[in-house]
């Protein structure tokens, strides 16, 4: 089997239900999710396997779910069986709460960064926000699995929580945005 097909040379790609332009909003949406997934692997590569087993496990689980989300979004036309569910969103909320407890209380906006691991997780967060925006644009015009949008919204919160936990595990304090008032109460 060859890795190339030449079928996309004219600027079209296949989705479930037909072919679309490679810059179609549907392709943009699931392509941005693919970017998130690739950067999650970058974050995992920065983890200490003995200290961060739980993070590696959770992020690997998320990588599989990101494939599910991309697959759900690749379905054009007739509604199919979707893989991303409300239960996945609820589980993310549990994980957010768990990682949030590891970091010091937060009152103000913080600058993204800290350790190289936390920085990578913040990149995952902002890429997820971009993916969410692409899905919102797609859903305004075409049918989508609404749980994907909810999942991405919660996933960006997850990345914020786990990035702060990564800093806390290394004893690195978050840097507050200097001109921020108290926004988290």
UniProtKB/TrEMBL annotation:
Pathway: Cofactor biosynthesis; adenosylcobalamin biosynthesis; adenosylcobalamin from cob(II)yrinate a,c-diamide: step 2/7. Signal peptide: none annotated. It comes from the Bacteria. It catalyses: 2 cob(II)yrinate a,c diamide + reduced [electron-transfer flavoprotein] + 2 ATP = 2 adenosylcob(III)yrinate a,c-diamide + 2 triphosphate + oxidized [electron-transfer flavoprotein] + 3 H(+); 2 cob(II)alamin + reduced [electron-transfer flavoprotein] + 2 ATP = 2 adenosylcob(III)alamin + 2 triphosphate + oxidized [electron-transfer flavoprotein] + 3 H(+). One of its GO terms (biological process) is cobalamin biosynthetic process. InterPro entries: CblAdoTrfase-like (IPR016030), CblAdoTrfase-like_sf (IPR036451), PduO-typ (IPR029499). Residues 3-165 form the Cobalamin adenosyltransferase-like domain. GO terms for molecular function: ATP binding; corrinoid adenosyltransferase activity. Keywords: ATP-binding, Cobalamin biosynthesis, Nucleotide-binding, Transferase. Its EC number is 2.5.1.17. Gene3D superfamilies: Cobalamin adenosyltransferase-like (1.20.1200.10). Homotrimer. NCBIfam families: PduO_Nterm. Belongs to the Cob(I)alamin adenosyltransferase family. This is Corrinoid adenosyltransferase. It comes from Melghirimyces thermohalophilus.
